Amino acid sequence: MMVMKPGSPAPTRLKPPSATPAGVRRRRSAIGLAWILGAAALACHAQPQPAYPSHPVRLIVQYPAGGALDGLARSVAERASTLLGQPLLVDNRPGASGFIAFEACAKAVPDGYTICQGTGEAMSFNPALFPKMPYDPARDFLPVVQLVQIQGIIIGSGLAPFSTLPELIAAARARPGALNWASFGAASNPHIFLEWIKRQAGVDIAHIPYKGSAQTTPAVISNEAQATYTALGFVLPQIRAGRLRALAATTPKRLTQLPDVPTLAELGLDPGFLSWVGLFAPTGTPRPIVDRLNAAFAATVKDAAFRDRYLAVQGFEPVGDSPESFAAMVAADREVARKVVQATGIRADLQ
Predict the structure, then answer these.
(1) Which overall architecture, per CATH, does domain 152-250 show?
(2) Given a cut of 90, is residue 249 above it in pLDDT?
(3) What angle is formed at CA 301 by the lines to CA 297 and CA 306, rounded to 5 degrees?
């Protein structure tokens, strides 16, 4: 023990050496800051994302407003929106054989907030008809759900001198080129059916393209054109009134609304292909979102009241399948379209 003499100065106290050097303290501070920032980032990522959909979904349609397939899109969208909890807004992008609509859909952000209504014409026949397209159906789109098959029928004018398809073929054979077949443009479904039947029956029937589907039925009723292909729902009242004649169903089975009308297959002709309508999303759309959309739209078209009061009246047969089943159907349909185009030599032009 040190004894201090009176008046002696106090000894200088030396600070003990630091237990942690300054460099180590700085490193520890940096590590601590990094840990805090990392924890904050994890906390941000851990925040629950809004459930899909959290705002309206855009549905692109390749047809102008007011047409039958635009009506289908709006009717289905209205009902599916109640299941999704958000509005589905129809965005009409007509023209150029569907190129305008599907290019816009293909280039949209694949987040489920842009989808498009597709048909066999745009998704199956366009790749077989056009060497260059602004979209690739197989690469740029994910099949979501097949909504319906279109109950197709070949009709003749009530003023024409035939009442069955064999009689139409006989009349065309007797007077080559004298009969007119209406369509709403080159490579449209009515035109493709005409060329397919002409090839099988070995007859010559003139193709008369009109500006749109709204003109083809009046042309046949007036006997300006003697026949065409169309969806049953568009013409069933005129058939029942006698202004049009049902010549053949293009479906695998006879139509329940017209059970006496034979199918093309029953008449010895290959029906070739079916007409259908489905929904697609841009490639890259997350699978949970595809499944959510599939469930909502499949439930919509399978609803018994909607089926009976709307779809059946319009000549639409509901499907509502899985994305995988729809994708397989589309792939097979593209192969059929390629064979039909190759066999008929049909050519397309941009509308």
Answers:
(1) 3-Layer(aba) Sandwich (3.40)
(2) yes
(3) 130
